[in-house]
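step: validate -> pass
step: tokenize input -> pass
step: predict -> running
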Amino acid sequence: MIYTEMTKKAINLAFAAHGTTPGKDGIPYVAHPLHVAEGAETEEETIVALLHDVAEDTDVTLDQIRAVGFSDSVMEALALLTHDKSEPYLEYVSRVRENELARKVKILDMRHNMDMTRLAGLPEADRQRLESKYRKAWLLLTDDSADTET
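step: predict -> pass
step: emit ->
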């Protein structure tokens, strides 16, 4: 992970936002964005990785995140990565694909989400549904020739 003044702010914000709320794997959810950030190559990727689920899964808003002082490019990527549940998942992924910073972080996020050892207790039908959903999204994000129509 890259440690700078801004990534340290992002780490602190991720911990404050997610607290000790458990993830589906039974460990504090904040372990997920920390793991995703380990694959980041730049300061901005690290910040976005650490904060990619904050506005979507906690009471912290994008405006509150912006107030910390993150760059416009970080905020644009975070806004794209914040999935409105009323939007079909593959449409959301298609939008994410159009922003290189958001796309890179979403790929890192999906790598961790597709690690089924994290979800060992999940029923087989749920695991298969997740694998199918992630496989389609993965192709949209990683295949330059992928059809972005959903």
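step: describe -> DSSP finds nine helices and no strands in the chain.
step: cleanup -> pass
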